[in-house]
Amino acid sequence: MTRVLGVGLQSRAESAALAALLDAAREAAPDMLAILADKADHPALQTVLQAVQAAGLPVCLIARSRLNGVATPTYSARVAERFGTGSVAEALALVAAGPEARIVQPRAISPCGTMTTALADSLKGEKKE
Protein backbone atom coordinates (compact mmCIF):
# COMPACT_ATOMS: atom_id res chain seq x y z
CA MET A 1 0.00 0.00 0.00
CA THR A 2 1.17 3.51 -0.81
CA ARG A 3 -0.05 6.60 1.04
CA VAL A 4 0.00 9.79 -1.03
CA LEU A 5 -0.34 13.35 0.21
CA GLY A 6 -1.89 15.58 -2.45
CA VAL A 7 -1.13 19.28 -2.12
CA GLY A 8 -3.09 22.02 -3.83
CA LEU A 9 -2.03 25.64 -3.60
CA GLN A 10 -3.02 29.02 -4.94
CA SER A 11 -0.55 31.42 -6.51
CA ARG A 12 -0.53 33.59 -3.37
CA ALA A 13 0.43 30.69 -1.06
CA GLU A 14 3.42 31.26 1.24
CA SER A 15 6.15 28.76 2.12
CA ALA A 16 5.77 29.11 5.92
CA ALA A 17 2.07 28.21 5.74
CA LEU A 18 2.82 25.32 3.40
CA ALA A 19 5.54 24.01 5.72
CA ALA A 20 3.11 24.14 8.66
CA LEU A 21 0.44 22.27 6.67
CA LEU A 22 2.93 19.59 5.63
CA ASP A 23 4.18 19.24 9.22
CA ALA A 24 0.61 18.62 10.34
CA ALA A 25 0.23 15.95 7.63
CA ARG A 26 3.50 14.25 8.60
CA GLU A 27 1.73 12.25 11.35
CA ALA A 28 -0.14 10.37 8.60
CA ALA A 29 3.25 9.10 7.30
CA PRO A 30 2.81 9.69 3.57
CA ASP A 31 5.04 7.73 1.19
CA MET A 32 4.82 10.32 -1.56
CA LEU A 33 3.87 13.93 -2.19
CA ALA A 34 1.77 14.81 -5.27
CA ILE A 35 1.56 18.33 -6.71
CA LEU A 36 0.43 19.86 -9.98
CA ALA A 37 3.29 19.87 -12.48
CA ASP A 38 2.58 23.49 -13.41
CA LYS A 39 3.03 24.52 -9.74
CA ALA A 40 6.46 22.89 -9.36
CA ASP A 41 8.22 26.25 -9.77
CA HIS A 42 5.94 28.02 -7.27
CA PRO A 43 8.13 30.02 -4.84
CA ALA A 44 6.33 28.59 -1.79
CA LEU A 45 7.21 25.08 -2.90
CA GLN A 46 10.91 25.52 -3.56
CA THR A 47 12.24 25.45 0.02
CA VAL A 48 9.62 22.96 1.15
CA LEU A 49 10.32 20.57 -1.76
CA GLN A 50 14.03 20.63 -1.01
CA ALA A 51 13.34 19.59 2.59
CA VAL A 52 10.83 16.94 1.52
CA GLN A 53 13.23 15.43 -1.01
CA ALA A 54 16.14 15.59 1.45
CA ALA A 55 13.99 13.54 3.84
CA GLY A 56 13.62 10.92 1.11
CA LEU A 57 9.98 11.54 0.28
CA PRO A 58 9.40 11.24 -3.49
CA VAL A 59 7.48 13.99 -5.25
CA CYS A 60 5.08 13.09 -8.06
CA LEU A 61 4.30 15.85 -10.56
CA ILE A 62 0.82 15.42 -12.03
CA ALA A 63 -0.34 17.14 -15.23
CA ARG A 64 -3.43 19.32 -14.76
CA SER A 65 -5.24 17.40 -17.51
CA ARG A 66 -5.11 14.18 -15.44
CA LEU A 67 -7.37 15.75 -12.78
CA ASN A 68 -10.28 16.29 -15.17
CA GLY A 69 -13.19 14.06 -14.20
CA VAL A 70 -11.62 12.62 -11.03
CA ALA A 71 -14.45 12.14 -8.48
CA THR A 72 -13.60 13.49 -5.04
CA PRO A 73 -15.38 13.28 -1.66
CA THR A 74 -15.43 17.05 -1.26
CA TYR A 75 -16.54 19.54 -3.89
CA SER A 76 -15.84 23.16 -4.69
CA ALA A 77 -17.73 24.61 -7.66
CA ARG A 78 -14.92 27.13 -8.23
CA VAL A 79 -12.31 24.37 -8.31
CA ALA A 80 -14.48 22.16 -10.53
CA GLU A 81 -14.85 24.96 -13.05
CA ARG A 82 -11.07 25.49 -13.26
CA PHE A 83 -9.76 21.95 -12.87
CA GLY A 84 -12.60 19.58 -13.75
CA THR A 85 -12.61 18.02 -10.28
CA GLY A 86 -14.10 18.94 -6.91
CA SER A 87 -10.79 19.10 -5.01
CA VAL A 88 -7.29 19.51 -6.42
CA ALA A 89 -5.58 17.98 -3.36
CA GLU A 90 -7.87 14.94 -3.30
CA ALA A 91 -7.62 14.40 -7.06
CA LEU A 92 -3.82 14.67 -6.95
CA ALA A 93 -3.63 12.11 -4.15
CA LEU A 94 -5.98 9.72 -5.96
CA VAL A 95 -4.21 9.98 -9.32
CA ALA A 96 -0.76 9.47 -7.79
CA ALA A 97 -1.92 6.53 -5.63
CA GLY A 98 -3.32 4.66 -8.63
CA PRO A 99 -6.56 3.44 -10.13
CA GLU A 100 -7.89 1.66 -7.04
CA ALA A 101 -7.00 4.39 -4.56
CA ARG A 102 -9.32 5.76 -1.90
CA ILE A 103 -9.28 8.97 0.12
CA VAL A 104 -8.43 8.34 3.78
CA GLN A 105 -8.26 12.00 4.80
CA PRO A 106 -10.39 14.49 2.86
CA ARG A 107 -8.95 17.86 2.04
CA ALA A 108 -7.73 20.01 4.86
CA ILE A 109 -7.63 23.72 4.17
CA SER A 110 -4.82 25.87 5.54
CA PRO A 111 -5.82 28.64 7.99
CA CYS A 112 -4.91 31.24 5.35
CA GLY A 113 -7.11 29.44 2.80
CA THR A 114 -4.45 29.27 0.08
CA MET A 115 -3.49 25.59 0.38
CA THR A 116 -5.12 22.19 0.76
CA THR A 117 -3.88 18.70 1.51
CA ALA A 118 -5.56 15.31 1.26
CA LEU A 119 -4.41 11.72 1.77
CA ALA A 120 -5.14 8.71 -0.40
CA ASP A 121 -4.13 5.09 0.00
CA SER A 122 -3.58 2.76 -2.91
CA LEU A 123 -5.37 -0.54 -2.64
CA LYS A 124 -2.68 -2.28 -4.65
CA GLY A 125 -1.71 -5.48 -2.93
CA GLU A 126 -4.76 -5.49 -0.64
CA LYS A 127 -7.59 -7.98 -0.89
CA LYS A 128 -10.78 -6.58 -2.30
CA GLU A 129 -13.92 -7.18 -0.27
Summarize the structure.
This protein has 129 residues and is α/β, with parallel strands linked by helices.
Question: How would you characterize the overall build of this protein?
Answer:
- The protein is of the alpha/beta class and 129 residues long.
- Helices cover 31% and strands 24% of the residues.
- The chain contains 4 helices and 5 strands, in the order E-H-E-H-E-H-H-E-E.
- The protein has helices spanning 15-25, 43-54, 77-83, 88-97, and strands at 3-9, 32-36, 59-62, 102-109, 115-121.
- Strands 3-2-1-5-4 form a 5-stranded mixed sheet, sandwiched between helices.
- Strand 4 and strand 5 form a beta hairpin.
- Helix 1 (15-25) packs parallel to helix 2 (43-54).
- The longest helix is centred in the middle third of the chain and has 12 residues, at 43-54.
- It is globular.
Keywords:
5-stranded mixed β-sheet; 129 residues; alpha/beta
Number of helices: 4
Mean pLDDT reading: 87
Shape: globular
Beta-strand proportion: 15-25%
The helicity comes to: 25-40%
Low-confidence stretches: none
Q: Strand order across the biggest sheet?
A: 3-2-1-5-4
Largest sheet: 5 strands, mixed
Strands, count: 5
Class by alpha and beta content:
alpha/beta
Provide the fold topology.
Layout (H helix, E strand, L loop, with lengths): L2 E7 L5 H11 L6 E5 L6 H12 L4 E4 L14 H7 L4 H10 L4 E8 L5 E7 L8
Parallel strand pairs: 1-2, 2-3
Antiparallel strand pairs: 1-5, 4-5
